[in-house]
Design brief:
CATH class of the largest domain: Mainly Alpha
Largest sheet: 3 strands, antiparallel
Strand content: 5-15%
Number of strands: 5
CATH superfamily of the largest domain: Winged helix-like DNA-binding domain superfamily/Winged helix DNA-binding domain
Structural class: alpha+beta
Distance between the termini: 30 Å
CATH architecture of the largest domain: Orthogonal Bundle
Order of helices and strands: EEHHEHHHEEH
CATH topology of the largest domain: Arc Repressor Mutant, subunit A
Helix content: 40-55%
Radius of gyration: 17 Å
Number of domains: 2
Length: 151
């Protein structure tokens, strides 16, 4: 989706436009391109079975802002579920949910798991009895270096 690679025969090649991203000095630029492509162009609803909930992705910068304010120490998931989405988004989720745990699942699959994959948060796992067993999250040092908010 970021047009970094193309397929030629049985091989994948880096496009000429992005050859420079192969240099170590450009790792940050590559990271930014992958991050922004994931959250802006890729439909993150494809990652889970929760349905569209189309208001989450365009408002995800708000969710990142909430994490920037509350996740210096470990931010408990139950507390996060109350704050992480804008009120209108939370209302949409509550009105269109099929299961009582949808909001927990959406927080995990659309915010926590991607940010953990990008190395921006660390997690504390809880009981393995639930499919969503993360109890709390905390920003990594990279989070504040990578994310800037101007209000």
């Amino acid at each position: 989706m970021a047009n970094i690679i193309r397929k030629k025969g049985k091989r994948f090649l880096v496009t000429k436009k992005y050859q420079k991203l192969l240099l170590d000095d450009n790792a940050g630029e590559l990271y930014y391109l992958l991050f922004s492509t994931f959250f802006r162009r890729f439909n993150i609803a494809y990652r889970d079975g929760f349905g569209k909930f189309s208001s989450i992705q365009p408002t995800i910068p708000f969710s990142f802002y909430v994490l920037s304010k509350f996740a210096d120490g470990f931010f408990k998931i139950k507390e996060m579920e109350e704050k992480i989405f804008l009120p209108a988004v939370r209302r949409e989720i509550m009105e269109h949910s099929r299961r009582p745990w949808d909001i927990t699942g959406l927080v995990h699959t659309r915010i926590i798991e991607p940010l953990q994959s990008f190395g921006l948060i660390e997690v504390v796992s809880g009981s393995k009895l639930s499919g969503f067993n993360i109890e709390a999250v905390k920003k990594t040092g990279l989070f504040d270096k990578f994310m800037r908010f101007s209000l």
